[in-house]
Amino acid sequence: MNIRLQSVLLQRGIRPEVLAEVCEVDPKTVSRWLGGRVPHPKHRRSVAQHLRIGEEFLWPPAPEATPVPKNAELVATYPNRAEVPRDVWLSLLRSATEQIDVLVFSGTFFVQSNPMVVKMLAAQAAQGVRVRLCFGNPSGEAVVARGHEEGIGDTLSAKVRASLTYYQPLLSEERCEVRLHDTTLYSSLFRYDENMLVNPHIWGQPASANPVFQLKRVNDAAWFDSYAQSFETIWAAAQPWLPR
C-alpha cells in the first residue's frame, strides 16, 4: 500500500475521487494507486502538482538491483507460494520439452490454481515430454506425521486422496507416470527441464506459507543437481499409484 499517498490525502482532507477528476481517470484507478500500483508518469506529475508535494516523496525511486552473476542458479525468490505469479507456473510448464517432475505431499493447489493443468500435462506428454508426478502415500507414515505436525490431523491424507482423483486421466497417457512415496519431504519440487521451483517445508507450517525459490541449472553449480538427485532417489523408492 502507498502509505505516503494515503497519509497526504487524509491530512489535506482530499477524497480519492478528487484525484480521479484531476487526472481524468476512473476512481478505481486511484484506489489501485492507493493500494500500491505506480501511476503513469503524467498522472504522477498531476497528483504531485495538485497536492503540492514532491513526486519522489509519493513514489520514491526503486533501489538499484544488485547484478546477478551470470552463472548464478538462483533466478528469483518469493516469500510464499501464493506470491509466485501464475504466469511463471504456466510458462515453465509450456516451455518444457524433455521432462516435468513434481514431488509433493498433496499438491492440491497445483490443479486448483490451474484447472487445465491435467490437460496441459497430457498435451506435453503427447509432444514427447516425460511427466512424473510423485505424491505422498495417503496411508503412509510420512503423510500422517506431516498432518499432525501441521495440526490438521488426518486432513492431509484426505487432501492427497482428493488431489489424486484429478490426475487419474494421466494414467492412460504414454510418458505419464504417477507414484506414491512415503518419505519425509523437506521441500516440494517442480522441475521443468533445466528450471525448478523449490518450496522448502518449515516444521508445523503448510507448504503454501513457506518461501519458494526458482532455480535454473548452470554448469559447475550444485543446487539444482542436488534437488534433482533427491527427486530421483525418492522416485526410485516410490510405488506406482494403482487407484481402486
Q: How would you characterize the overall build of this protein?
A:
- Strands 1-7-6-5-2-3-4-8 form an 8-stranded mixed sheet, with helices on both faces.
- It has 11 helices and 8 strands.
- With 244 residues, it is of the alpha+beta class.
- The radius of gyration is 23 Å and the shape is elongated.
- What structural class do the secondary elements suggest? alpha+beta
Give helix % range. Answer: 40-55%
Poorly predicted runs are none
Output the number of helix runs: 11
- Please tally the β strands and state the result: 8
Ends distance:
50 Å
Biggest sheet, spatial arrangement of strands: 1-7-6-5-2-3-4-8
Largest sheet: 8 strands, mixed
Average per-residue pLDDT, rounded, comes to: 89
- Strand content is 15-25%
Q: Please state the oligomeric state of the protein chains shown.
A: single chain
**Strand and helix order:** HHHHHEHEHHEHHEEEEHE
Q: Any idea what the shape is?
A: elongated
Evaluate the radius of gyration. Answer: 23 Å
